[in-house]
Amino acid sequence: MATLSARPVLSDVLWETSGSGVWLKRVVLLVAGVAALWISAKVQIATLPVPVTLQMLVIMVIGAAYGPYLAAATVGSYITLGLQGLPVFAGTPEKGIGLAYALGPTGGYILGFFIAAYAVGLLARAGWDRSILSMAAAMAVGILCVYIPGVIWLSAGFGLLGGGSEGAFMGYGWENWYAYGVKTFIWIDALKLVVAVLAFPAIWKLVGDARV
């Protein structure tokens, strides 16, 4: 398994540029990533309390393909749009918009998306996307980055922030962490991520490590 040394990610190799073209490339990739996240949020199975969407797969692909900084900027931009009131999140506008929605049951997962994008990007930059085994390990790290804050928030809710206002999401209790935060989603997410686990090493084979 690769060490944490800097190596190219797929976006570096598939779209080579220099000078001012680098910034154009970054803007185009960021906008495309935000659009993909928006669309993937709306492709969903309506489960409670958090819907199953394609976002986990898109987050991991963005992280692995973009690297840590561009991936974090992309997911951060997406989250910022949602906090500003655009209906980009899975349950918007039906279940509210903006900060009010983000402080609901999905808030921990939204934070986890940002963490996972950076973490998977960092691992891809270290070369973990080059083999099936290391890519599977990177996806496992990404899942943990999403599920840990997601489960903590679902369990404790607004109480984590010291809040207790009427109508605020106060969580489902720590005794329900598995039933509400993991059971419905984990195997579906794992199956979706098989696509990335298989695809990235295959793409690198086609590109050829000799180029890098």
Could you provide a short overview of the structure?
The protein is mainly alpha-helical.
Task: Output the keywords.
9 helices, 212 residues, mainly alpha, two-stranded antiparallel sheet, Arp2/3 complex 21 kDa subunit ARPC3
| Share of helical residues | 55-70%
The counted number of beta strands is: 2
CATH fold naming: Arp2/3 complex 21 kDa subunit ARPC3
Could you name the CATH class?
A: Mainly Alpha
**Which CATH architecture is right?**
Orthogonal Bundle
What is the mean pLDDT? 89
What is Rg?
18 Å
Largest β sheet strand count, sense and barrel closure: 2 strands, antiparallel
Could you give the topology of this structure?
Elements: H1 10-14, H2 21-42, E1 44-45, E2 52-53, H3 55-66, H4 68-83, H5 98-102, H6 107-125, H7 132-156, H8 177-181, H9 186-207
Antiparallel strand pairs: 1-2
Helix pairs in contact: 2-3, 2-4, 3-4, 3-6, 3-9, 4-6, 6-7, 7-9
